[in-house]
Amino acid sequence: MRPTLRFIGSLCLMLCAWNASAQEQVPDSIKTSRYGLRVGIDLFKLSRSFYEKDYKGLEIVGDYRVAKNYYLAAEIGNENKTVDDVQLNFTTKGTYIKAGFNYNAYENWLDMENVIYVGLRYGVSSFSQTLNSYTIYNRDHYLGNEPEVASGEKFNGLSAQWAEFVAGVNAKVYNNIYVGFSVRINKLISNKKPAGFDNLYIPGFHRTYDGDFGVGLNYTVSYFIPIYKTKQKIAVKK
Amino acid sequence: MKKIFALLLLLAFTLPGCEKDDICDADTNTTPRLVIEFYDYSDPDLLKSVTNLKVIADGQENGIVFNEAGNDVTRYLANANKITVPFDTSADAITYQFILNANSGDPGQIYTDTLQFNYARQTIYISRACGYSVLFNLNSDNSLPNPFVLNNDPDALQGTWIQNITVENYNLISENETHLKIYW
């Protein structure tokens, strides 16, 4: 045998031996998985309600662990938002519900219970819009600038549905208290528009433009209510 | 975990930055003006440019600016075969004076005709950036005042310089079409 080959051979043996000894040092451990309901509130909407004069919103979030990595998840919320644009000023009020699931892509060590997830939601919103005032768009200023026209016209019975892709985290900070946040990309599926106006803001979906896409986010603090536990012996390779 | 957390946090703050501008596109049809074309009375198919035409709305001090680059006098003068004049979005009628050879030193060369336009207004929603615009419909119903009244005479078609007027399009929707033809 040439010296180099002999060296490689011994290196392999050493590595195998080290590897084996490393595995033997890990004691058998029991991994406890807790299943239950996590309920929380969106701090982002709540805080905006205080510092933003034209906004009031509340969102309750919840998820329920149904399998090792799967959670049923939902958000229920209410928003009241006044938008003051150059040409328009309107108020949108309404309620929404989003339901779907999260997939936890994070492998927790032992009894850690953090979640880094991706998920899907189906969102439904029912709302009304009030056109507070508008200004006629007129490129010609010969006869003077267009005045702002007070309207107050209300458009009731509006609705929209959308699909939402979610990515987020939920980190356990203390006992059963979790903080988390998520970002969302929404795609409108249906949108019942009023005659003579448009759904420029959809509660839960956020502001819309000509396209069908919207974005959203939330910062949550949640409380976990444990319902049952499963114990799993972690297999150790010998 | 921390890295992903930081990444998501970054994403959360950059996402609201991807908004479209709220600017009304210049190509969008908004509140239209009346498009008038001038034709030769003796050869009605022939476009004929007006000479130093000044157009002033009742209640206005200055004429419509036809020539942005002109001086205090010439900027209000049209020397084209096509002009646009705005309608009032807050009333159903507007009266204009059409003054031919307005800058002439000889008062005998200045011809003034008064045209009153009568129309209905319709407010329509365009888009978020443009908001609402007003469309105009020149009266076409006999029970309503005539679409145009020349020199306060509902039956007149001939004025001091205007020889004939025809309405080509009662509905003002865009400025890409001619609404009124004036023969002189």
Topology summary:
The complex is a heterodimer of chains A (238) and B (184).
Chain A: H1 3-25, E1 29-42, H2 43-51, E2 55-65, E3 70-84, E4 88-104, E5 115-135, E6 148-174, E7 177-192, E8 201-202, E9 206-207, E10 213-234
Antiparallel strand pairs in A: 1-2, 1-10, 2-3, 3-4, 4-5, 5-6, 6-7, 7-10, 8-9
Chain B: H1 2-14, E1 34-39, E2 54-57, E3 82-85, E4 93-100, E5 111-127, E6 131-138, E7 148-150, E8 164-167, E9 171-172, E10 180-183
Parallel strand pairs in B: 1-10
Antiparallel strand pairs in B: 1-3, 2-4, 4-5, 5-6, 5-7, 6-9, 8-10
Give, in spatial order, the strands making up the sheet with the most strands of chain A.
1-2-3-4-5-6-7-10
Count of DSSP strands of chain B: 10
Helix content of chain B: under 10%
Please, how many helices of chain A? 2
Most extensive chain interface and residues per partner = A-B, 35 and 39 residues
Overall number of strands of chain A: 10
Give the helix/strand class of chain B. Answer: mainly beta
- Residues in β-strands, percent of chain A: over 45%
Task: Give the number of domains of chain B.
Answer: 1
Helix content of chain A: 10-25%
What is the oligomeric state here?
A: heterodimer
Radius of gyration of chain B, taken over Cα atoms and rounded to an integer in Å: 23 Å
Return the average pLDDT of chain A rounded to an integer: 86
Globally, the shape of chain A reads: elongated
- The separation of the N and C termini of chain B measures 82 Å
Number of separate structural domains of chain A: 1
